[in-house]
Amino acid sequence: MAYKICIDPGHGGIDSGAVGNGLKESQVVLPIALEVGEIVGKHGVDIVFTRKTDVFIELNERASIANNANVNYFISIHANSADSAGKGTETYAFGPGGQGEKLAGALQQSMISSGIATANRGVKFANFAVLRETKMPAALVETLFISNAGDAEILRNRKHDIAVAISKGVLNFLSIPFDSSVFNPQQPKPAVMYRVILDGVQVEALSYQDKAEAAVREAVDSGKAKAGKVQRNTDGVDLYFYPPAIDYEKELCRIIVNGKNLVALTGKTKCINWAKANYEGHVVIQCVKNNVVIAEFDNVNPAKPKLMYRVILDGVQVEALSDLVKAESAVREAVNSGKARSGKVQRNTDSADIYFYQLVKK
Ligand code: ZN
């Protein structure tokens, strides 16, 4: 499942945040935050913004946006202010010891290692509303000081680099490798081609889907291949099967446990559930129609008792054996020796009679 994060560009609208060196915090952090969302979003993370324009949003409303969207993490992006000497990057979490601190640490670390931070002011803790009111781990990065001439110059001219540094921190925290190809959207898209795949091996790729489908049919109908499919190259999606793909949920399937063919039921899921509930051991589910193994697993600790075969002579159970062959021969032996008139073998797990034996009078 994809991560979902909320990105919160600080301040906005009537709340300009810090002002200095010709910059307004609200307007500096917005493009940085939007680009962080774009970069991280291109790595498969769902992005929710608290604002995407220069509007004023209450602090508790920012937390509500994140809470209502059920995001995994919250990241607020700000610029700092102090006397003109203060400079560098610091990142806040609500308190120590949690994921919020780790997230803050990842953002701080990336700002340092990218060379954007003019000083490492470290990870700090603060009772900020957006850190307190958000239900998920949250961090607030104070990128650089708007009140410092050197920092302000970076905020003015290197917003992209700041956005990349924050994005790398987020991705690193999420253990998602950074992919620099997201910066080359202009790369020509590959032409859509349709792969002709016969018995699992691609033999050619054609520009037209209908021609690819015809090639698959021809190969199968002529006996050149047992089965084929057409696959789109751009996303690897299978578009066509010939012969048509079997829906195993509608097919009769064998349940084979420890090499013994026990029973056949309709539907793959039903067979899997049946085997898991009733049988212990190595389970193979096989489609009766094409003998394809559609599931295979080792089942231990089933809820039901171990599979046994009841030896029932003249309607009375005399023993239960784990080996079907031995149970059957026990029945035959009893009947052949005159100990019983008839006998049968019954499976304990579902009480199905699976073997009958009696002597036929001549
Ligand atoms: Zn701020």
Please explain how this structure is put together.
The protein is of the alpha+beta class. It folds into 4 domains: 180 residues, 3-Layer(aba) Sandwich (Aminopeptidase); 49 residues, no CATH class; 52 residues, no CATH class; 50 residues, no CATH class. The protein is built from 9 helices and 20 strands. The strands form 5 sheets. Strands 4-1-5-8-6-7 form a 6-stranded mixed β-sheet, sandwiched between helices. Strands 10-9-11-12 form a 4-stranded antiparallel β-sheet, with helices on one face. It has a 4-stranded antiparallel β-sheet with strand order 14-13-15-16, covered by helices on one side. Helix 1 crosses helix 6. It is elongated and about 110 Å long. 34% of the residues are buried. The structure holds zinc ion (ZN). The site of zinc ion has 5 residues, from loops.
Task: Identify the notable features of this structure and list them briefly.
362 residues, four-stranded antiparallel β-sheet, 9 helices, 31% strand, binds zinc ion
Outline type = elongated
Instruction: Estimate the strand proportion.
Output: 25-35%
The major beta sheet can be summarized as: 6 strands, mixed
Radius of gyration: 34 Å
Give a list of the ligands: zinc ion
CATH top-level class of the largest domain:
Alpha Beta
Q: What is the mean pLDDT?
A: 91
Task: Indicate the low-confidence ranges by residue numbers.
Answer: none
- Helix % is 25-40%
User: CATH superfamily of the largest domain, please?
Assistant: Zn-dependent exopeptidases
The CATH architecture assignment of the largest domain turns out to be 3-Layer(aba) Sandwich
According to CATH, the fold-level topology of the largest domain is: Aminopeptidase
Number of helices: 9
What is the end-to-end distance? Answer: 70 Å
Q: What is the H/E string?
A: EEEHEHEEHEHEHHEEHEEEEHEEEEHEE
Placed side by side, the strands forming the largest sheet appear as 4-1-5-8-6-7
Give the domain tally: 4
Number of strands: 20
